Amino acid sequence: MAQMFTTLGNWNWLIVGFILMALELLAPGVFLFWLGLAALLVGLVSFVINPSWQAELIMFSVFAVAAVPLWRRFALKSGAASQSNPFLNRRTDALVGREFTLEKPIVDGAGTVRIDDTIWRVAGPDAPAGSRVRVVRADGASLTVAMA
User: Fold this and answer.
1) Across residues 46-67, what is the average pLDDT?
2) Which residue among 2, 16, 51, 94 is least packed, with the fewest CB closer than 10 Å?
């Protein structure tokens, strides 16, 4: 067993680091990435100084444990970025309150409106094509409108 640890050289740590990062691509969860980063750091430090295998394992442990608060800080910052765009993955909610022009008239409570490059079904009071309507509610892929 000790023979295996003594052979852990600079290149082995780098290879293990890249393998762990590649495994992160296959099984995403952001856990293996940080272990891979710790292994890469041990490999890079081993190029500068020549530590014993025990010191390399201790460095790996320290870097892996230090990666947890680093990951938490990174995750909190990226979480704040997603809060700056509250309608991400809820695009229909972003349409509420906006005004559009009817593409097809609303007849018997159903019509269509063009929003950017998409045609949306709308429900609301009967109105001729070309009328301005305001979205009052988004319900799945259907919008409820009122006259603007």
Assistant:
1) 89
2) 2
Q: Establish how many alpha carbons lie within 13 A of residue 9's alpha carbon, considering only the half-sphere containing its beta carbon.
A: 2
DSSP secondary structure code for residue 10 in this structure: H
pTM over 0.90, yes/no = no
Answer whether residue 113 shows pLDDT above 90.
yes
Closest CA to 135 of 116, 115, 117: 115
Which structure tokens are listed for 92? 């229909």
More confident residue, 135 or 73: 135
Quick one: 86 exposed, middle or buried, by C-beta within 10 A (0-12, 13-18, 19+)? exposed
| Beta-bridge partner residues of 139 | 142
Average pLDDT value for residue range 61-82: 76
User: Is-contact 14 38, C-beta < 8 A?
Assistant: no
Query: Whole-angstrom Cα distance, residue 29 to residue 38?
Result: 16
Instruction: Provide the H-helix boundaries in 27-52.
Output: 31-48
Handedness of CA 57, 58, 63, 69 (dihedral sign): positive
What is the C-alpha separation between 110 and 108, in angstroms, rounded? 6
Q: Are strands 110-115 and 118-123 parallel, antiparallel or unpaired?
A: antiparallel
Q: Which helix (H) or strand (E) holds 83?
A: helix 53-83
